[in-house]
Amino acid sequence: MLRHFKKLSMILLVLLIVVIYLIINNFDNKFIYNYYLELYHNSWSQTLKNTPQNLVRQNNYKIINGDDKKKIEKYISNSLKSFTRHSRNRDLLRDAIDQYCNSNFPSNCQKYITRYLNILFDQKLAGRYSAYLSEETLVHSIRLSKTPDANYISLISEANNRGILNYVYNIHDWVTFIRSFNTNLTIYDSDRAVFITNKNKFIEIPSGLDFILSTNKKVTINCETNCNVRESYKNGILFLERKSNTVFHEISSPKVTIYSLEKAKVMIKPTK
Amino acid sequence: MIYSNFKPFKELFKILALVLTPVVIAYIIWILVFTYKNLNHYSSWDLSNKQNLNALIFSRIINLIPNYIIAGNSNFELIKLNTEDKNLYPLLLKDYSWNSKYSRVSLSDKNMNYKAKIKSKGGSPFHFIHQDVSVKIKVSKKKLYKDKHRIFDLDKIGHPGIFNDVLAYEMAKELNLLMPEHRLVIVEFNQNKKFLRQFVGSLDEQLLRLNSKMPADIFTIKLTAKNRDNSLIKGTNGFSSPLSWKKDAVNNHFNYASKDPIRNLLNIFHNVVSNNQDINELIKLFDVDYLSRFLFFIQLTQSTHQDSEHNFSLFYDPWMQKFYPVVNDIMAWGGPFGNTLKQRIPKKEDMVVHDFINKTSMENELLDLLKSSLLVKQRIRELSSNTKSLKEIFEKKYIEYLDIAENDPALGGIYFTGSRLTSRPEVIKSLNLLYSYIDKSLNLIDSYEQPNLDYQTHVKEDVILKDKLIFYSTKDFSKNNVKINPGTTILLGPNVNIIFANVKMLGSKRKPIIIKRLIKDKAFGAVVIKESESSLLRYVDISGGSGFKSKYYKYTGQFSAHDVNNLTVEMCKFSSNSDYDDNVHLVYVDNFLIKNTIIKNSPSDGIDIDISNGKIENSSFINNGNDGLDLMTSIVYVSDSTFIKNGDKGISVGENSNLKINNSTLNENYIGIEVKDKSIATLLPTVSLRSNFKHDINLKKKNYRFSGGGTIKIPSSLDNINIKKDSFSKLEIYK
Asked: A173 CB contacts (<8 Å, ≥6 apart)?
């Protein structure tokens, strides 16, 4: 028996040295999987359970009471502590911040938004709450903006109001942007974003984009689900407007296709 | 064994066995659990496959291996990085972030020490799967790295094909493409870790200066990493909106935020795609020769890493009014060697050569459209019929690299490329595979049809201008060969430009050609010569002009010559311009001769010469508001000329210029001659410098990018002159 112990202890001694070395080495270098842990936020499933999801997953804002507000605050600040751009709850967190900032007296709104946007830029969130952004975050957001949409307009007009930057909204960027999705639109007047569409052709408005379309000719809207588009007539001109009430993402905001029954001049502009 | 009968040891062993067994078991479980957990997260992140498992296991093994020095006495250039915090290097890996901030580091090479800052680099999560991270280094403005680089990258090598990229950059150099400096170096961190890395110069204004281009805008599509937007609209890419283009270099003649050139490009691009506009309208925005070389390079290097979302950079040169794609992060011949997750030594049959020119997409919408142009196709075929010099370079470099691969200590032992453990035999094997891959690639290029050289070239029509002409709006003769007869008078309305390509203005002493303003107190725009093979101005008197600025370009002189070979200006007079910077402005003029010409009474500079070379003979520069002659990155020989009463410098020699001046006079200027920023001026004994108000000679460093002051060589006979010199500059007196 003792003989076995001797052998075993020798092996264990060697193993012990290896283990100590490996542990020290690991502490020095840090295992790569620890990054994955941080990056993919292994606790996201845990936090998800405690989330007031019912308060944030929606198309419109909810009126929330003081208790709910505290719950959301708690969720947001806990999530932001370990928030990275790969956190699994990033969309949920963004929606929670959106809901929170829409509640009464959102005292921490600026703090939350700044932290969120500095880690993960979101043009819709930035544009919607441009008034809450610090100067630095505002400039940062303008620089990272990709689409010349209503949110971008909001960011640069906020910057102009504060006298920070001399940016001017350029409608030609919008024209370029809309045309990149539409192979059949011809520019009629690029200064006013007026296009010509041919008979029996579709105009595609990408998902997640707020717009206002006006035309004096007949068009029909095609949508897979609710497009959230409001239709109105004024002086014989048809107006189609989509204006999202929350910072929604692509899933909840399907692509809109507008079918032109005849050759028509259409003006498509970002919603203000 | 001594201890076998020693009782206390027996007890100790018992205890050890009891304690250690669970520790070891726990450790094994710990590893298994964490590996499994990570595998789970990792897999769910990438929705992937076996590769993730391999990457993870490799990463685990790699991180268990201790640090060791691999390089030995390598022949590669050594860059040493030392940090105050000795753990900084692994920390860089730990704190990997796209918002990472610079930390202080001291950098040294063979001869010099530099103060520098370091941060981790690389946008997507792919970049930190590997053991090694790429880093960005920034040195102080006061002391540039090798007198050239303010910011540069030390990039990790991603796979055993160590020589792929460096060879591709050699090819790019041969094709005369715009590219950052690139070479292999050994980087040592805190005298501990040594890695073979790629030195890559920065993609900014410095790249343009080092490639002898005028400093202007470089636009790059940035839609990944920190520029990734999780609210990005589906389907959007870099060609959807100018907002996704960021500036890596800025033209200070225009608004910092202006993206007008790229907006114009995208609009035309969409017109071609959507509205069947002629593709030649788009091609016009590019230098076709350059563009063809770039596309040829993509085909040769089998790289699609400059795609619609990132890494695609365009330099817009407003003096040429053209775009030039810049070679940037190419990952040449990289595909068969695996990807970020797994690197491999490919099998020969896996090394498929794609035909990007005719079939496969370059994953870049703009390049895919441009390559379909017949004109571009034609040029690419011409290039493909002349690959001799490329093949020679390729053969030469292959032998050189093979020698390195076989003998350099840096490639001995076992080390990591990406997340693969590699050794010398693998590197040699990869190089040999690369050889056969490039050979295949060149064979495909050779198989392109031979060029049909009788394609339609645009023949310029001849036009003769004579008598008295009045132009109320801008007149463009760039599609004509123009001859202007003696005695012609051209009157130009307010802000009206007249643009020529090849022009011969043949005035005579008795019958000079006069170009002047139509309305007395309203200046005309500019007289412009651009993209000219040869032009001549003889007995021409130009006065009363200003310049011209559009959204996309600017003519800063009342007479502006851009991209001209062989420009001769004889017996001319340029005077009384207004508003803009220069009276005469030459940019990219190869071989000019200015002879018996008078340039006087300019509000600013008399003549501004940028990136050009030529001679000035027997001319006078009198009473100009700023400099009489202003040089930037030019080589000029001046003889028998006078520079008198100029408001600033008689001659300003700046930004790496070279001036030789003979038998000339520089009197009563504010400063006689100023030499700065690595420029060299040689004054021959027959030069006279008198009564210059401030200094006769001023030597200084002005622009940090040139990392040095001016040098002047003066004869010892030149005495009684007032010289001012800073510590960066050099005064050489010869006998």
From this structure: A148, B241, B242, B243, B263
